[in-house]
Amino acid sequence: MPAEEGHNGPPLRRFAAVLEALRAAIFPARCLNCRRLLAVEAGGATASEAPAGEEDLLRPYFCSGCLSAIVPLTSPFCPCCGVMFPSRAGEDHLCGRCLERPPAFRMARAAFAYDQSLVDVIQCFKYKGKTRLAGPLGVLLGRAFSRYWAGEAVDLVLPVPLHPQRLRQRGFNQSDLLLREWQGHAGPATVPPIVSGALQRAHATAPQAGLGRREREANIAGAFVVRRPEQVIGRHVLLVDDVITTGATVGECARLLLASGAARVDVLALARVN
Questions:
Q1: Per-residue pLDDT tens for 122-156?
Q2: How far apart are alpha carbons 40 and 27 in whole angstroms?
Q3: Are 47 and 38 in contact (CB under 8 A)?
Q4: Does the pTM exceed 0.70?
Q5: Strands laid side by side in the 264-272 sheet
Q6: What is the Cα–Cα distance from 200 to 82, expressed in whole angstroms?
Q7: Which of 1, 124, 225, 235 is the most exposed place for a label (fewest CB within 10 A)?
Q8: Has residue 143 been placed in a domain?
Q9: Does residue 15 lie in a domain region?
């Protein structure tokens, strides 16, 4: 039978390649954001089908123009809240906000700075229903975790929850979806246990967009509740969100978790607003 498989294998592969070429010709790949046609290699595959670097994971979905300004979050940044400083000179140091009023979490980190290119990517994921992006974005999230928590004993991971009404409208919790994809790509042994029900959103709040830091803190106060404190007592908890803007949401979540007995709370996000 191996000889037969060897005889039939190449024709089957050629047939599959022809079908893929026909599919690409009839339904060419387009950028999910601007709908521009994506570059195609000879043979019918997109030019980025074998991603190597960070943003290369997104090239099967977005054109080079829409990905041109994605900026990895690098030093110098605040070692507490993770905000990246505009000046690229100097060493990591605490920002003015963390010096004035340290947040409840121990440290927050993100994979990228939240510039316009990444705004387009995340909006496609969250608001346009392009859930296929959870795969590459989840891998990028996992890489950031490995970079900043290597050797750390994180006990469990909590996605920042959505209110049930918002969850019904959107159809998914973006943070939870990213974690599931990260777990699927990395293997369950690499990702700390994911617990979705310990922290819940108690009531809906007005959208945070357009609000300042103090307004965001007032808006989010009382919005969350720890339903299962026994799961966090004495544990090192990692909160995961898609974007950290002012840190008001993750700060409130961290405060509640620590009040419920968590030993330490850290934060991981795809992007950090500077």
A1: 888 888 888 888 989 998 999 899 999 988 899 99
A2: 12
A3: yes
A4: yes
A5: 71-72, 108-113, 264-272, 236-244, 156-159
A6: 25
A7: 1
A8: yes
A9: no
